[in-house]
Design goal:
- The complex is a heterodimer.
- By secondary structure, chain A is of the alpha/beta class.
- Chain A is built from 14 helices and five strands.
- In chain A, β1, α3 and β2 form a beta-alpha-beta unit.
- In chain A, α2 crosses α9.
- The longest helix of chain A has 32 residues.
- The radius of gyration of chain B is 28 Å and the shape is elongated.
- The longest helix of chain B has 31 residues.
- Chain B has two domains: 85 residues, no CATH class; 197 residues, no CATH class.
- The N and C termini of chain B lie far apart (84 Å).
- Chain B contains twelve helices and three strands, in the order ααβαβαβαααααααα.
- In chain B, α7 packs across α8.
- Chain B is mainly alpha-helical.
- Classes of the chains: A alpha/beta, B mainly alpha.
- At the A-B interface, α2, α5, β4, α6 and β5 of A face β2, α4, β3, α5 and α9 of B.
């Protein structure tokens, strides 16, 4: 038993030296998570603050001006042009000069004064339908305020039913608050999985793996010796992103650090297991790179980081069952924002533990059986 | 209650009715519901008095989702108000409704913006990541020197190393376009030659990035990490594929200008969904062409320096 532990420690040391002896390699593993955390933390937000729009105001009345003043005063909308004819709409949208064109028809004010319902047309550039939908929901909010003001100013009773909205865990519904916790697992996984996938492939390419197999090391010791350094790198990277979230973006952390990191360790075991399995299959480093790509890309896209898992087509939802990142993101968000403890995370931890066990066992079996 | 029926009938909601707040809050904690609409006990009286309020509690664990839900709830409430007015139960007052038209994507089909974005990711990865290993491997194994002593010129080595991956990229591209059109039914409103021209330039840029990384770091382990860092996440997060570039803080926006993915996302979205809009296509193509030239020269310079 003691021998086993000593052998694993020795192998871990050797692996760490192999990975970290090069200064450029150290830099490429330690600096990026922090820099990426900072850059993507700012970039990754669905909230809009610059919406260029153009206006085709065919009414040119006090009412239409008031409505447009509401848009201009919102701090989000920037009027880039006053259009003269509806032909101009196409130009502005096609050439991406405006994200929205707002068209107010001739009898806008007259209809309002008669107590009739009237429309404003919002034409949005649907090339990114997500952004367009967000921008138009901002317009709806401005129009809602306009309606309320108009009713009050003209002595009409306000709308019968209104709602007061409140959001748990994220009062202003800032998308950054749930993007950044999601990045902890994502950034750590991408580099760690690839590092692990390379580790055995490199030894195989250099011919040193066969030497390793004839030493007294047992396959599972080799497996653990390869997994440990990746785990250390992964945890360091996750800590880096976590510190960025805490110290720079100051996202309120509702849960416990122990819960978060316990979850991350199980997640990294699963990611490393997949990496080792790929590494055991690959004959060259280029193959290992290709294999890890084939996993990293769907893992990142179908993780719920950018689109909720529940909105995906059901075939893809089944695929996400074997995606460790999906569980890690759920864990990070729930611990971060909702402050849940380990018992409520069972449905994430259990699948992760299964993935980790299967892949790690598989990898050590393959190490043992590859040589024959 | 009619309002509750409105929620139950809407295709967006799965309403669970509870009699009091604690069970509803418990469901929120378990995240088995995304929002609570709390209708107060004296709601009917409030409605009769002409002003009623419901409370909406949203699960903010996923802010984007919560925002969308908030919009749907507002929609249901407005519909209720409109019905009341139509039935003469409330004073009809002039009010403005927003009529939304989504150009290029009338049905608001999310495939339309996801598929061009995915093509960018696939092309980036095929182009940059596999090439990143090519030169590094030769350096690592020392075989580069045997290549250098042959009469083959450096340009020829670099080209010879790139051409197989270029062809691979082209095959990937063909698969992407075919599946975009026939599997995901994304319309191609521009013309095929323009699409191919834009994509070829982008594949060349991606190959150039891979080659430059590969020739400068000379180590496969580091090359693979750098290639991943320089291409995949930036193409996902900073290209305008998901997040609106105009809303990013200025320093971050400046970074996006050096990323080729930004130009390719714009090109693909325009060529697929809007058509051949030359005012968009020409500047973005020029940006990509400049990058191809710079990366080619860069790889050449790096390789020669090491030879001395």
């Amino acid at each position: 038993m003691l021998d086993t532990i000593l052998r694993i420690i020795a192998l871990t040391r050797k692996e760490l030296l192999a990975v970290l002896k090069d200064r450029r390699a150290r830099m490429s593993l330690l600096i990026p998570p922090i820099v990426q955390g900072l850059i993507f933390g700012y970039a990754a937000s669905y909230d809009l603050n610059h919406v260029p729009y153009a206006v085709l105001d065919q009414d040119r009345s006090a009412a239409s001006r008031e409505l447009l003043a509401g848009l201009d005063g919102s701090g989000v909308f920037e009027r880039v042009a006053d259009l003269r004819s509806s032909q101009d709409i196409r130009t502005y949208i096609d050439q991406r000069r405006a994200l929205l064109v707002i068209q107010i028809e001739q009898d806008f004010e007259r209809k309002l004064q008669l107590g009739q319902a009237t429309d404003v047309q919002v034409i949005a550039d649907g090339r990114n339908s997500n952004t367009a939908a967000t921008a138009s929901s901002y317009v709806t909010a401005v129009v809602g305020t306009f309606n309320d003001n108009w009713r009050v100013a003209h002595g009409l009773p306000p709308a019968v039913l209104t709602s007061t909205d409140r959001a748990w865990y994220n009062p202003n519904l800032e998308t950054r608050w749930n993007m950044i916790p999601g990045l902890i697992g994502t950034l750590a996984m991408i580099q760690t999985l690839m590092l692990t996938a390379m580790s055995v492939a490199r030894e195989r390419e250099q011919g040193t793996f066969d030497q390793l197999l004839v030493t007294p090391f047992r396959p599972f010791e080799i497996m653990l010796g390869k997994a440990m350094p990746s785990m250390l790198v992964g945890i360091t990277q996750a800590t880096g992103v976590f510190l960025v979230a805490q110290l720079w973006f100051r996202i309120p952390f509702a849960g416990s650090i122990i819960t978060l990191f316990s979850g991350l360790i199980v997640f990294l075991l699963a990611a490393i297991g997949i990496g080792l399995l790929l590494s055991a299959v690959a004959a060259t480093m280029q193959q290992a790179m290709l294999f890890s790509l084939l996993f990293i890309m769907p893992f990142s896209l179908l993780s719920g980081l950018t689109t909720p898992v529940s909105n995906m087509p059901s075939v893809l939802q089944y695929f996400t069952a074997i995606n460790p990142l999906r569980y890690a993101i759920d864990i990070a968000r729930r611990v971060y924002l909702e402050g849940v403890g380990l018992p409520l995370l069972t449905h994430d931890l259990l699948p992760l533990a299964v993935i980790a066990t299967v892949t790690l066992t598989g990898a050590s079996w393959m190490f043992g059986n590859r040589i024959t | 209650m009619e309002l509750v029926a409105g929620f139950q009938l809407s295709p967006y909601f799965h309403a669970q009715v509870t009699r009091s707040m604690p069970p509803a809050e418990k469901m929120m904690l378990e995240h088995s519901v995304d929002a609570i609409v709390r209708i107060p006990a004296d709601f009917a009286r409030q409605v009769n008095s002409g002003s009623a309020q419901v409370q909406v509690v949203l699960h903010g664990g996923d802010a984007n989702r919560a925002r969308i839900i908030q919009g749907y709830v507002q929609g249901a409430i407005q519909a209720w108000n409109a019905r009341q007015a139509a039935e003469g139960k409330a004073v009809a007052a002039g009010s403005v409704a927003v009529q939304m038209r989504l150009w290029f994507n009338d049905a608001n089909d999310s495939h339309y913006f996801l598929v061009p974005g995915l093509i960018v990711l696939v092309m980036t990865l095929i182009g940059a990541l596999l090439t990143a290993m090519v030169m590094a491997r030769e350096w690592e194994r020392g075989t580069i020197e045997s290549l250098f002593v042959t009469p083959v010129r450096i340009e020829e080595i670099l080209l010879g190393k790139t051409i197989p991956y270029f062809l691979l990229g082209m095959i990937g591209l063909a698969l992407c376009i075919v599946s975009a059109k026939y599997l995901f039914h994304v319309p191609l409103r521009g013309t095929l030659p323009v699409l191919l021209g834009a994509s070829t330039s982008y594949v060349l840029v991606a190959l150039g990035i891979g080659l430059l990384i590969s020739s400068s770091v000379k180590n496969q382990m580091i090359a693979s990490q750098l290639a991943m860092l320089a291409t995949f996440m930036p193409a996902l997060m900073l290209s305008g594929f998901l997040f609106d570039l105009r809303s990013m803080p200025t320093p971050i926006r400046l970074i996006t200008y050096v990323l080729p993915a930004r130009y390719y996302v714009t090109l693909l979205q325009t060529i697929f969904l809007a058509g051949n809009v030359w005012r968009v296509i020409v500047p973005n193509m020029l940006a990509l062409a400049t990058m191809v030239a710079l990366l080619g020269l860069g790889s050449r310079a790096v390789t020669r320096k090491r030879l001395d």
